Amino acid sequence: MSRLQEQFNATLAGEIQQKLGLSNPQEVPRITKITLNMGVGAAVADKKVLEKARDDMQKIAGQRPTICLARKSVAAFKIRDDMPIGCKVTLRRERMYEFLDRLVNIAIPRIRDFRGLNPKSFDRQGNYSMGVSEQIIFPEINYDEIDVIRGMDITITTTARNAAEGRALLEAFNFPFKK
Q: How many whole angstroms separate alpha carbon 75 and alpha carbon 61?
């Protein structure tokens, strides 16, 4: 088990249960998966761009991403059906907790001009979505080897029933929300 998962099972789950006033420990919200998504619009003109983006995401996530294809043609963007335009990774269990640990403790503090994460980015089910504008905040990426700075979307899917429960869960994991 990863350090963060052991900490959650030992102490954080009990703290969240008390904070939310839940009677059953099975009601405590948990993180089920983390999804990383990188749209690469420049892949329309050059296929090598998508390969470099996939390599960067593989270094960050620790597993090989899948290539996302366009669902329909858009003439204005010169996109045809089934053209590769992005990549995504879904992390679960061990890798999910390891990525979450690196995100909170290493990557987020390296963001330039960081003032806190937006606390309004929860959906009604308690899932949290955030965008990262530079992949170089992750320590796995060598700054000298990147060709273009790319951003990505990070979605944290939880078992929370509403945004308040989701926020309590992520605050227990020391997410730096704006005050």
A: 33
pLDDT tens figures, 7-45: 888 888 888 888 888 888 888 898 999 999 988 876 666
Helices (H), 32-179: 47-61, 93-102, 163-172
CA nearest neighbour of 174 among 65, 100, 118: 100
How far apart, in whole angstroms, are the C-alpha atoms of residue 163 and residue 123?
6
Strand segments, DSSP code E, in the chain are: 31-39, 66-69, 84-91, 128-132, 152-158
pTM for this entry: 0.80
Q: Measured between alpha carbons, how far is 89 from 148 in angstroms, rounded to an integer? A: 20
The DSSP call for residue 26 is G
pLDDT at 89: 93
Contact (CB, 8 A) for 101 and 4: yes
CA–CA separation, 96 and 4 (whole Å): 10
